[in-house]
Design goal:
alpha+beta; 2 domains; three-stranded antiparallel beta sheet; about 35% helix
């Protein structure tokens, strides 16, 4: 929905926004716009670049001019300034822009084959994974599986993991014995936005909280 700021002034009445509230309204609208763009970029750059007629290279990079043109032709026009803002201000740092903003990619979360070219990194002794309470039983049996993604995503701290878990329902935070996993030969990578990645976490490396 688009708003005409002149009309807001024109039809002001008690209970409607007054002039000194407009910056707050505009800011809220800008955040909603940024969220829509972020969801669009995630869909295209992680899962379906073909949906707007673009291709990713082997490392997941898309040409920015192709992306903007494809978005425009598919009814979701984005300006280069909006793109820069979303990349810079996204709270999860989901995207990276290449040199001179000529290329863009998602930092992780792909369901399509890409080589993000991250170096193997020694993890801390403990990492965390946020999930929903309803998934705990299956995780106790199967461990953490990557599903349609390329990796399982792990967090550095329990607070971040808890926020992730809340996306899916009543949150539960699991401890992952990452140091022991690494010692046993499992590989870990650290994405550009601080997400720890590994192919799977077998159940024997998971510590479950007591559930009430």
């Amino acid at each position: 929905m688009s708003f005409n700021w002149v009309n807001i002034y024109q039809f002001y009445e008690p209970g409607l926004p007054c002039k000194n509230q407009l910056p707050e309204i505009r800011s809220a609208m800008d955040k909603r716009r940024q969220k829509r763009i972020s969801k669009f970029l995630s869909y295209v750059l992680r899962h379906h670049p073909e949906s707007i007629g673009i291709e990713l290279d082997d490392n997941g990079w898309a040409d920015v001019s192709d992306l903007l043109s494809g978005a425009e032709h598919n009814g979701f026009g984005i300006t280069i300034d909006e793109l820069r803002t979303v990349v810079k201000e996204n709270d999860k740092k989901r995207f990276s822009l290449g040199k001179n903003a000529q290329r863009i990619r998602a930092n992780q979360g792909h369901s399509i084959p890409v080589n993000l070219d991250y170096d193997e990194v020694i993890p801390p002794d403990v990492l965390y994974h946020g999930t929903a309470r309803r998934r705990v039983d299956s995780i106790q049996t199967e461990g953490l599986l990557r599903g349609c993604r390329r990796h399982v995503h792990l967090s550095q701290d329990p607070d971040t993991a808890g926020k992730v878990g809340r996306r899916y329902g009543k949150p539960v935070v699991l401890k992952v014995e990452a140091g022991r996993m690494h010692w046993d030969g499992h590989k870990f990578y650290l994405s550009a936005n601080g997400i720890w990645l590994t192919e799977c976490v077998p159940p024997e490396y998971l510590i479950f909280p007591e559930l009430t």
